[in-house]
Specification:
The chain has nine helices and 16 strands. With about 300 residues, it is an alpha/beta fold. Strands 6-4-1-10-11-12-13-14-15 form a nine-stranded mixed beta sheet, with helices on both faces. A five-stranded mixed beta sheet has the order 9-8-2-3-16. Strands 5-7 form a two-stranded parallel ribbon.
Amino acid sequence: MVHRRRLASSGYTTVDALVNGSVRAAPGGTAANVARALASLGWEADLVGRVGDDPAGNLVVNRLHQAGVRTDHLRRDSDWRTPVLVQEAHRGDHRWRFRCPACGERFATHRPPPESDANDLLGELDTPDVFFFDRASRFTLRLAEEWSRRGSFVVFEPSSLGLVSLFMRAVRAANLIKFSSQRSGSFLSILNGVESAVVETQGRFGSRLRTPSSRNWHHLPAPPLRHFVDSAGAGDWTTAGLLDRLLGDNGGALDLESMISALQNGQVLGSRACSWEGVFPDPLDTIATDFESFGCPRVLSAR
C-alpha cells in the first residue's frame, strides 16, 4: 500500500470574494490554499486553527471539506470574524481590497488561536509528515517545535517580520523557509545566516534557492507562461508542487539536486495557476446576490 503523505497546515485563512453584480467566493489564504492544493495532489491534509462562526467561516469549512481537506480541527468561534478579502482586476492582474465595498469598514485580520489549542492538537492529531505555517504565533510555534522534535518536516512561509522573537523561533524550527521577494524587505537580511533551506520566489524573474550547507544562491528561471489570466495562488501552488516532489520523490532531502528538482516542479504548477481565474481551476461558487448579507462587518456585527 502506498503511503499518503500527511500535511498539517495553519495560518492565514480567508474567504476570497469577487463582487460584480453577484458575490462569488472561495476559501483563500496561504495556509488554506496549500492544504487544498496538496489534497488535490493526493495528500492527506488537515487545516488547523480557528475561523469565525459566520457565513465566511461556514464557507471555508464546507468548501474545504468538499475539496478533500480535513477540517475536524478547524474550530468555529462565535467571538471571531473570518477574514474576507475582495479581489478586483487591476492592471492586467489583480489586487486585494481589505475594506468592505458596502460600508468601508476594514475586514477582520488574522487572529492566532491560543497556545492551549496547540496543546490539545498535539494530543489529538498524529504527527504529520509536514507542518506548514505562514504566521509565527505561540500557537503555530508550539506545533512547529514539538512536531519537529517528533520528526515532522517543518515549512515556514513568512509574509512579514512581525515580532522578532517569534520570527526567530520560527526560523530555528523550520527545515525550509519559503517567501516572496515582494514581501521580504523586513526580514531578508535576518535569513543570511540561517541553517534552513531557503527558497525565494521572484515572480516573472523566476526563483532562487539556497541549501542548508551553502551560503550561495542558485537561480532558476521562470517557466514559459502561454496564457495569463491572473496570478492569484501561484505562490501557493509553487509551495505545493515543491513539497510534493521534495517529500514524495526525494524523501525530504535538501541537497542542491533534490531542491532544484522540487522547485522546478513547483514552478510548473505555479505557472499553470496563472492560466485561470482565482487560486483553483474550478469556477468560484456564487454565494449571494449582495455582499452585505455575506461579509459586511457592520451587518454581521448587528446580528
